[in-house]
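Handover notes (outgoing to incoming on-call)

Open items:
1. Succinate-semialdehyde dehydrogenase/glutarate-semialdehyde dehydrogenase: sequence verified, structure written out, both below. Nothing else pending on this one.
2. Nothing else urgent.
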Amino acid sequence: MTTAIGDVITSRIQDRTLLRTDAFVDGGWVGSDSGARFPVLDPGTGELLAEVPRLGRAETARAIEAARLALPGWRARTAVDRSGILRRWADLIRSHVDDIATILTAEQGKPFPEACGEVLYSAAFLDWFAEEGRRVYGDVIPSNSAAERIIVLKQSVGVVGGITPWNLPAAMITRKAAPALAAGCALVLKPAEQTPLTALALAELGLRAGVPPGVLNIVTGAAEDAPEIGRELTDNPVVRKLSFTGSTEVGRLLMRQCADGIKKVSLELGGNAAFIVFDDADPELAVEGIFSAKYRNAGQICTAANRILVQDGILERFTEALLRRTRAVRVGTGFTDGVEMGPLIDDQGLRKVQRHVADLVEHGGQVLTGGRPDERGGTFFEPTVITGLSTESLAWREETFGPVAAIRSFATEDEAITLANDSEYGLVAYLYSHNLGRIWRTAEAIETGMIAVNTGRVSGEQAPFGGIKQSGIGREGSKYGLDEWLEIKYLNLAGLDR
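Succinate-semialdehyde dehydrogenase/glutarate-semialdehyde dehydrogenase structure tokens:
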């Protein structure tokens, strides 16, 4: 069964076979048992884009069974064979970048050029793990006995589950699917209810690339269905690992649910990044970093700069430069030429940003620009700069997940480190300085899994992405990210003296 697709997509897309509105299970397009569907909306206009199936536990269980049956054949293929399929998938994504980006912008809201960049980033994960999958090395360990050899093998975890967020609906799919499939796992994945169309389009291209039936399954569901789908992924004994990207609150819940089955977990959770600007930094360079680490995707990224800490000696120059740049930001729908920032994802996200701004002001903050919903209405919010960030404010303790740059000054290096570490989260921190000794001291002292120095970007398929403390467990990307989908098996080979 298919449903009509909104004009915002159909008027722009070339390959309409990418517009899938059914779930993807066992190599085919399926609906829910009840026939129920839920709407997918354009966050910029509120227009109905499509309706997709509301799957639940029973349908998820069938997807898991399809993965179980597909696993032996997929795991038995050579790494070179799996690599070829992943590379073809990446090539297909690149050849359809505009179409996938059109779908992504329509359902997520980010500017079209930014969406194109994300789609290419999603292909990069497939390229990377297509090659890393060919480098799953074991070991031969010297034994205490001349008659024995100790051998270590690495094998796929088996059937695995994944749950991805709405803010990067293409990249987060392949950041899990690429290493899982490269390792020889079979994957059942639930995309966010706000952005299922991008996931389904990627699944269509995976099918064309030769991913066998059951190796990749996409189960869709509304917000109300997520607990049941998640429960099946965590309770079903066939699933041996769960990878989740999303809020710390939900990550805690999923980890508890996985405990009874002793499942492996990878959790990429919330962030509360400190963005530290020392007084020997270039203020213009730091401001450009803010636009990567704060205003990109309207601030709706886990690596967003949430607490901007600026040393006293550079505070005035930095704030003036940030204000100039912020006031020049063009806000609008993602398909409008020249737009740098789109809408927030939904009304809930808008209300949270409004609540954080009001709380910042209540705790002594001063709004220098923005601070309110954009005149376009809907879920658009003005790019905002606020000084006087209080350690008692909501924005100090929680991700704002919106375009609010909240600034606090500091006097010394030690104070900056103390402030940066004053968080239960530990995903990423940003440092701006030209003093190499200071960079080393600060980077080593800050409690995060990633540090970006003199840049606002930290993600890359070749780098290990992940955090510590309440920001998660495990790493995605890089050679380390492949190990998350592998188990170690030890063989003691005896009788070699006969």
